[in-house]
Write a structure and sequence with these properties.
- The complex is a heterodimer of chains A (204) and B (245).
- With 204 residues, chain A is mainly α.
- Chain A folds into two domains: 110 residues, Orthogonal Bundle (Rna Polymerase Sigma Factor, Chain: A), CATH 1.10.1740.10; 76 residues, Winged helix-like DNA-binding domain superfamily/Winged helix DNA-binding domain (Arc Repressor Mutant, subunit A, Orthogonal Bundle), CATH 1.10.10.
- In chain A, 62% of the residues lie in helices and 0% in strands.
- In chain A, α3 packs across α4.
- With 245 residues, chain B is α+β, with helices and mostly antiparallel strands.
- Chain B has two domains: 47 residues, no CATH class; 157 residues, Sandwich (Immunoglobulin-like).
- In chain B, 37% of the residues lie in helices and 23% in strands.
- In chain B, strands 5-4-7-8-1-2-3-6 form an eight-stranded antiparallel β-sheet.
- In chain B, β1 and β2 form a beta hairpin.
- About 13% of the residues of chain B have low confidence.
- The chains are: A mainly alpha (204), B alpha+beta (245).
- Chains A and B meet through α2, α3, α4, α6 and α7 of A and α1, α3, α4 and α7 of B.
Chain lengths: 204, 245
């Protein structure tokens, strides 16, 4: 899979930034390829946040339509295509979670915890992508429960650090400390597997 | 890294867990500090990979067809909008040219949001929603009282979706009546963005469901309708969106 994540991945199909360029020219097939590449991950993220398949589908559809509408504004110097997509999806899902919390909560107990790798997707992409998926799951599983909780409340629940502190009844400094330790551990383990520097065109 | 570099804030920023003011501070710093910009990119890469740790769930098979159909409508709507521009400034909001990249625009947005809230929203502002909204680039659309001259409103729309509406000057309604915000689209019926009432002072602050695609939005209006809410506007337009300038 020629995605923006795995460093040194075997390249199959057009690069993400090429897809964005073609989308900017109005090529619907490029959007379709982008969807095939990241639709599953966007839906998985949305479902984790909102907890309801119908709401997650709304987020999925909104995310790709917004990527289509906003294709001219994607700036490769500010991050890679999947980061951009995940950012749109995450923010949209948090909005939905806040606007319809009751419905979202109905499915909350069915959520699998992070760091519990499930079955591989039907089209998992190159071996490097599968390896990254496993590495992320293992890195999350390697965090302490309190560290993982701080990360999940921030990213999947959209809480600020002060809100997390209030929610858990812990001092703000404790939450900052847990977040710092968790992020540094994740970065140490995952950064070697992720292309984080330079521009997207580096991989041409 | 020295204490001058907000490393803790960079991590929290990447996770989306900073309050608006702290977020603006990070953006100001990163705009001038290449080292912290690189740090932030690294953290953002790690955060964006977090969903890979979830058990994959395949999306509904029909979702792509819905996206493709809407994208085609958008493309057709975009051509029509080019041929006959209406609310041209508002339509440009969906293209987000310099908005997503412009720190200055973001700061102006935050300041405007706070100012408008203090003028129009009833009671204390709903903190988390306002913070979430003001963290992201966005625009404000003004609605003027056409059928209700003393009323006005501001629609706050974030770049990646989600919106809020602050209204003032509308009359409180009896239980069987309500106000509704509509996005009127080219070639199709209007979409209801919000249903709301106002307080005794005639003000309201409500969450808005903004259509995924705004390319073919031709008008935005508020009407008075029977309660429970209508699926299409029947009342006269009390407020209408002005072209964005």
């Amino acid at each position: 899979m020629r995605s923006g994540w795995p460093a040194g991945a075997r390249l199959e199909g057009p690069a993400d930034h090429d897809l964005l360029r073609r989308m900017q020219l109005g090529e619907e097939s490029a959007l379709e390829t982008l969807y095939a590449r990241y639709g599953g991950l966007v839906f998985t993220l949305a479902l984790r946040i909102v907890g309801d398949p119908e709401l997650a589908r709304e987020v999925l559809q909104d995310t790709f339509l917004r990527s289509w509408d906003g294709r001219e504004t994607y700036d490769p110097s500010r991050g890679r295509v999947p980061w951009w997509l995940m950012g749109i999806a995450r923010n949209r899902a948090i909005d939905v979670l806040r606007s319809r919390p009751h419905r979202a909560r109905l499915r909350e107990q069915e959520r699998p915890p992070s760091g519990t790798p499930g079955a591989e997707p039907a089209d998992p992409g190159a071996a490097d992508a599968v390896a990254l998926r496993r590495a992320v799951a293992q890195a999350l599983a390697g965090l302490s429960d309190t560290q993982r909780e701080a990360i999940e409340l921030a990213y999947y629940q959209g809480l600020t650090q002060a809100e997390i502190a209030g929610h858990l009844g812990q001092p703000l400094g404790t939450i900052k400390s847990r977040t710092r330790d968790a992020m540094e551990r994740l970065r140490t383990l995952l950064e070697p597997l992720i292309e984080t520097g330079g521009s997207e065109s580096r991989r041409d | 890294m020295t204490d001058e570099h907000p490393v803790d804030a960079l991590r929290a920023y990447a996770l989306g867990s900073l309050e608006a003011a702290a977020r603006a501070n990070v953006e100001t710093h990163v705009a001038a500090c290449a080292a912290c910009a690189a740090q932030l990119r690294a953290y953002e890469g790690v955060v964006a990979a977090l969903p890979l740790g979830l058990a994959p769930v395949p999306p509904p098979s029909e979702a792509w067809e819905t996206i493709r159909a809407s994208a085609r409508e958008t493309r057709a709507g975009g051509r029509k909008a080019q041929a006959k521009p209406r609310l041209a400034g508002w339509l440009r909001v969906t293209r987000w040219p310099a908005v997503a990249a412009g720190l200055a625009a973001l700061l102006i947005w935050n300041v405007s949001l706070e100012r408008e809230l203090s003028r129009r929203a009833p009671g204390p502002a709903p903190g988390p929603e306002v913070e979430a909204l003001s963290r992201r680039p966005g625009r404000i659309v003004i609605l003027a009282g056409t059928g209700k001259p003393e009323a006005s409103a501001r629609l706050f729309v974030a770049v990646d979706g989600g919106g809020h509406l602050a209204v003032s000057g509308l009359a409180p309604l009896p239980r069987e009546r309500t106000y509704q915000l509509w996005f009127v689209q080219t070639g199709s019926s209007a979409v209801n963005g919000a249903t709301f009432r106002v307080d005794a002072s005639g003000r309201a602050w409500v969450k808005v469901m903004v259509p995924a695609s705004l390319d073919n939005v031709q008008a935005i209006a508020i009407t008075e309708e029977p309660s429970p809410q209508n699926s299409a506007p029947t009342g006269k337009h009390l407020l209408d969106a002005l072209p964005w300038k």
